[in-house]
Structure formats: structure tokens, C-alpha cells
Design brief:
Number of helices: 14
Order of helices and strands: EHEEEHHHHHHEHEEHEEHHEEHEHH
Strand content: 5-15%
Largest sheet: 5 strands, mixed
Shape: globular
Structural class: alpha+beta
Distance between the termini: 52 Å
Radius of gyration: 24 Å
């Protein structure tokens, strides 16, 4: 038996922490939930009244659950079916953003306090003049180190769900926490601007002011404690090369995300969802515009071979399914600006070669849709994402990698049972793919959300 929940209702609680943030985000954005009592936990749908709504199934199990939850969050954030939300939903969404901003600031504050404690410990040890003095200061230094360790543990516990941080943290990572908190506050302020005049918006605006007030002092403390060079750890006395740092370092491997287009199945079918939950819950599944995407996650040395094997597992579990090709995630200038939180004009100047064109040119467009003045140039999101991270330190999808164009060509050949072709930068398949798009992408030059701010030594906006 299943039940539909409206966004204004209280939804069931998922047992996995990484799914709860995604579910809360979907609810605050006005999505609906169909709760299922089988192996599948449920599905979230942006607008059931749409002919082809965005749909994301949610499972109770799966070894790639955290990655699937991140993919689902991006699907919710990029959905454009719900152009406006009611005041109550806006308040809920703004509250979620401010909760995350406060958690990020709390974590950054404690990390900086921990660094301060450890700096005091170093000063005590260096200032010891006699044996007796050394014993007393050693005791004090150990206490400072213990306080620093406690604050560091608290900081990691305060990180929002889905946020990762290396150990020991680098100064640039702490700066990114502060910048991301400011970005969350910017988005909450934009939501507040959409609220009608009235007393219900006053507490929200007061809370936004409180978050912004905390930002300045924490940035000042970071500037005072920041190490040089940037690559060294904020907690200098435990550098990764010291041995002690190695034993306690929290590293996260980069995971390759491979979105595959799957034909002949629908995520609206309960029997299909049940089979996905039983056999294919390690994938991230979503449906947008009538197209089903299965995202495969791997850390294998050869992601192409791993993805080809994963495609066979889909075919075994769903004999009617056909894994057609890799979804290269085509985007227009408007899409790039919206995803990066930048202005349309800034992205247009990059693409036109009028900014940083000499040494760091923007990726070449893969194709062009339309003709004449209405033509729209198309890029692939992974190529743009790599360029933004390399040249502007905009790490929009941390710990995530995508296939290179050459790997995409190899995998598509394997999926279609063709001999492995020699990769060419400009492929005829792109034009064929774009020719069957249901609608022509339109560039939207309207103002985008406030540009995200990032702390990165040597990087530029």
C-alpha cells in the first residue's frame, strides 16, 4: 500500500541520514512524496500534474546511497517545473538554508579555535627556559592540545550532512566553509525577498542578519591564523607528513559519476521501482522530461569497464531495459550560469573569449541548436565543471569526477556493441543527439541568484 504526501504535510522520516537532507529539500521546494511499503522507500515527484515531471525513487538500502542522495539533490535543485512556491514553502526552504549556514559557521569557528589552542601550546613549549618551567608549561601545552582536539571533533560533528572535510583541515577548506555559509545566507535572503509584506517575514530577516553578523569575526580569525603556503594544514603542528597526521588523516577518494540513459522503463511504474530497490539500488535513479537516467558510481581504476559491467546488471534485472548511451549533460550558457551561481554576462564573456581567453580558453561548444540569431550553443557540463575548478577554484561538485570525452566514446561503443572507435574531439553523435531533443534550449538572460563566493588563494572570480 502506498500513500501520497503533500509538501505542507509532515513526511515520514528516512532511516539514512544522507537521504533526509534531500527529502527535506524536496519538500521545501514544493515536491510531493509517494511513500511505498515495499523494498523501495518511496519516490519524490516535482509536480504530479505535469505530463513528464521530474521523478526520483528513494531506496532503503544500497552501497552508493550517499552518492545517490547527492545526485537526487542536484535533480531537485535543477528542476524548473515549480517556478514559484507558496509563502510557507519559502519559509521552510529559507530555514533549511540558514540551518546549514549556521552549521558551517559553527564548524569553521571551532576549527579556528582549535588552531588557536594549538598555537598557544607551541608558544608554551618554545618559551620554557628551565626544567621546572618546562614541566609546568608542558602540562599547560598538553591541556591546550586536548582542548584543540575536542574542538576539532565538535567541528566535524557539526558539518551538515553530505559535507566532507579533510583531516587535518587546510586553511582553504575552512575558508570555503565560511564562503558557503555566506552563499546559503544569500539564497535565504533572495527567498525572503519573494515573500509578501507582513510580520511572518520579520523573524526570517532577523535570522539572516544574525548569520551575516557572525561571518566577519570568523573571517578575521581565519586571516590571523592562516598558514602559508596554502597547501599546508591549518593545524600546522600535525602536518600530513609528520606520521601522527598520517594516522589520523580523514581522506576521501574521488568518485566517478557516470549517468546512463536507460530506455523502455518508467519510474512511475511500481513494479519497476520494486525491482530497482531489490537489484539496482546501488545506482542513483531519476527521470526528467520523460528520460530515465541511472547514475553509476565507481572508484575503479578503469571506470569504463566498470560502467559496462554495470550496464549488464541493469539488463539482467530489467530485460526490457536498454542502456542507450552516456548522458553527457548538455548545457547552455543560461544553464551554466544557474548551476555555478554566476551572472549570465560573466559566462557569456568567458565563452566569447573576451575574458581569460589567451592562456585559459573556455571549452569549445559541442554543437549549436537552431539557426541565425536564435541559435543556442551547447556545452557538456563535465567539461565546463573541470574548467571552472581548474581556473577559478569553483569546486561545485566536491569529490566527484566524470568520464573524459575519450572515455565517453569508448563506453558508448561498448554499450552499442560496436568496435572501439578512435576518439575525435568533435563527434557526429552530438549533432544526432541534439536533433532529437524535444525542445530547443533558450538562453535566459535574467539575473541569476547571487554569485557564490569562494575563498581560494590564487583563484579569481
Amino acid at each position: 500500500m502506498s500513500r501520497w504526501y503533500q509538501p505542507q504535510e509532515q513526511w515520514p522520516r528516512h532511516q539514512k541520514s544522507w537521504w533526509r537532507e534531500t527529502i527535506d529539500l524536496a519538500r521545501s521546494a514544493g515536491w510531493h512524496l509517494q511513500y511505498l511499503d515495499g523494498h523501495a522507500w518511496g519516490r519524490i515527484v516535482c509536480d504530479p500534474s505535469e505530463d513528464n515531471p521530474c521523478t526520483v525513487p528513494i531506496f532503503s538500502t544500497g552501497t552508493s546511497g550517499e552518492s545517490a542522495a547527492r545526485t537526487a539533490r542536484r535533480t531537485v535543485e535543477r528542476c524548473d517545473h515549480l517556478a514559484a512556491a507558496e509563502a510557507g514553502q519559502i519559509l521552510v526552504r529559507a530555514g533549511v538554508l540558514l540551518d546549514r549556514a549556521e552549521a558551517l559557521l559553527d564548524a569553521a569557528s571551532r576549527l579556528l579555535q582549535a588552531a588557536d589552542k594549538q598555537a598557544e601550546a607551541e608558544e608554551l613549549l618554545q618559551g620554557a627556559a628551565t626544567a621546572a618551567d618546562e614541566a609546568e608549561k608542558l602540562t599547560q601545552a598538553l591541556q591546550r592540545e586536548a582542548d584543540g582536539d575536542r574542538l576539532t571533533v565538535e567541528a566535524y560533528e557539526m558539518l551538515p550532512e553530505g559535507r566532507q572535510l579533510g583531516y587535518p583541515p587546510a586553511s582553504v577548506e575552512v575558508g570555503a566553509l565560511i564562503s558557503d555559509a555566506s552563499t546559503q545566507a544569500d539564497e535565504a535572503e533572495q527567498l525572503a525577498g519573494r515573500l509578501p509584506a507582513g510580520d511572518h517575514s520579520v523573524p526570517l530577516r532577523e535570522r539572516i542578519t544574525q548569520v551575516r553578523t557572525r561571518d566577519g569575526p570568523i573571517r578575521s580569525l581565519l586571516a590571523a591564523l592562516e598558514c602559508e603556503p596554502v597547501s599546508c594544514c591549518l593545524i600546522c603542528w600535525r602536518s600530513p607528513t609528520s606520521g601522527y597526521g598520517d594516522s589520523r588523516r580523514r581522506g576521501y577518494s574521488v568518485e566517478t559519476h557516470i549517468p546512463l540513459i536507460v530506455r523502455n522503463i518508467s519510474l512511475d511504474d511500481d513494479a519497476t521501482i520494486e525491482q530497482l530497490a531489490l537489484s539496482l539500488s546501488d545506482f542513483g535513479w531519476h527521470e526528467t522530461g520523460g528520460q530515465v537516467i541511472a547514475t553509476f558510481y565507481t572508484s575503479a581504476a578503469d571506470p569504463v569497464a566498470a560502467a559496462a559491467a554495470a550496464a549488464l546488471s541493469i539488463k539482467r534485472a530489467l530485460p526490457q531495459a536498454r542502456v542507450e548511451r552516456v548522458d553527457e549533460q548538455f548545457v547552455s550558457l543560461a544553464d551554466i550560469a544557474a548551476r555555478a551561481g554566476l551572472t549570465h554576462e560573466a559566462v557569456r564573456l568567458w565563452a566569447a573569449g573576451k575574458r581569460r581567453a589567451a592562456s585559459e580558453p573556455f571549452p569549445a561548444p559541442r554543437a549549436e541548436v537552431g539557426q541565425g540569431r536564435t541559435a543556442t550553443k551547447i556545452w557538456t557540463w563535465p567539461e565546463v565543471l573541470t574548467w571552472l575548478k581548474t581556473h577559478y577554484c569553483l569546486d561545485l561538485e566536491p569529490d566527484t569526477a566524470y568520464l573524459t570525452p575519450e572515455q565517453v566514446t569508448r563506453l558508448n561503443a561498448a554499450l552499442q556493441g560496436r568496435p572501439e572507435p578512435r576518439w575525435q574531439p568533435a563527434t557526429a553523435g552530438v549533432a544526432r543527439t541534439l536533433a532529437v531533443m524535444s525542445t530547443v534550449l533558450e538562453e535566459d538572460a535574467s539575473p541569476t541568484p547571487a554569485a557564490r563566493r569562494f575563498t581560494c588563494t590564487g583563484g579569481k572570480r
